[in-house]
Amino acid sequence: MEYICGAYDRLSDADSKIDESSSIQSQKIIIDSFAKFNNLKIYKHYVDDGYSGGNFDRPAFQEMINDIESGIINCVITKDLSRLGREMYKTGKYIEEYFLEKGVRYIAINDSYDSNIGDSMLGIRLSVNDLYLRDVSKKVKTSLRAKQNRGDYIGSFPLYGYKKDLNDKHKLIIDEEVRHIVELIYDLALEGKSPNKIAEYLTLKKIPIPIVHKQEPRAKDITENDGFGIWKRQTVKGILTNEMYIGNMVQNTHNKISYNSKKLRKTSKDELIIVEGTHEGIVSKETFDKVQDILHKKTTTRVTDHQLDYLLGGLLYCHECGRNIRISEDILKSGVRHYTQCNLYTRKGKYGICSSHRINYDWLEEDILEYLQDVCEKFCKHYDFNELEDSSENIVMKNLKEINQKIEKLNNLLNSQKSTIDNLYMDKVKGLVDEEMYKRIYDKTKQEINRLNMELEELNNKKQINEKQPSDNTSFNKCRRSVLDYMSLKNPRKDQIKRLVDKIEIDKDKKVYVHLRFPELIEI
After folding, report:
1. How far is CA 364 from the centre of its chain?
2. Are residues 194 and 131 in the same domain?
3. Residue 350 CB-density burial (10 A; 0-12 exposed, 13-18 middle, 19+ buried)
4. What is the pTM of this model?
């Protein structure tokens, strides 16, 4: 059989600092020599320079996969297994599943691995590479944390208003092109303008949004407002509340959720690393503090005019953007008609942002009250209050005991299923299980693990709800009192509705979603 080979060369930043023999040029020489000696034809070298082996979202690797799918190459050669990838399960899946399914021969030269022959030690070799990846990730994280504590800037794109010092990439200097914009934002805030109003002003003036000004990769997709972008309230508020603008370095705002994942989580306020006086501030601390006071007063005293007069006022939200939905009125000859409308659409609908979510409020209110009445009646029928009056605490304790027993059982089942996958993989590597049987058992086991995880998450949520309140003030008792209170009046008050309803969402298709506060009501 004739093999048309794709030579894959990868080098991460960490690899280049540790091992010069792993350089891209070195990999090319080793692969080309091997191919020439074994009469293999190299179609192309696919090179990912500066990419981690922890995931497979690499441009050259994906290009190689596309060429495999197109039938251009039927053999992949790397210097060793770690060049293909260091994360154990995904690397193993490519070698043991994907390449085999596509009829692709895989060769790792220095590890003496050839898929045409196989290797019973493959699982162990992949485990070693995975451990290396974890170790490197830990060392890199420790190094970056040390730099953050010194006040060195370690990000890729500095905050709007700053840029990296050409003489020291870990230092920031003011971006004079937009200094006046930052100062303008603070001046407008001092005049009492809200972040919303400031965002609208900047948008109408066609001032480029931060990612457009900094020419980040994402900027090429910006088409709104003639390519200048639309300023968001959150962006303006972020500028008005960030200590970076008074000369303090603020970092560790986000962390990776795992050593082999690109996903980030936002850190809490106490996890931030703040070093004072690391660079020149754009505004004075006095100005910054005044703006914080203004923003705080606006937040604590804000009242949505007459919205709170409506029974559902303050409970309505847009399903798409998450903003509040306001209640407005039309004056007609036949009388006054009330309707709902998304706040974001009201302000930015002219830019094509969100949609109106307009429905008849009077009908909505009538339907919601009828729905709540039905839910409360079903709750009362489901429980015998006379019998539960003195034993609701015992019921909660009994529920907790049952939940804990179910959680323990699920955890045991999960551990058993995970062991099954680990043992199955090793059996496959040893040749005790063929590819078809492995895939069938693996898929079935994975589905069971996903089902058990979902069930476990649901039980843990129920457990938290039961444990949240003291025994004499349980969720069940609160629910019972709220239901009876709601049903005590023919025309319920707003406070009674709020004790039962967390929020009400309306989507663009005018569907309504009622989020109840108590799980006891949801279950019924």
Report:
1. 33
2. no
3. exposed
4. 0.42
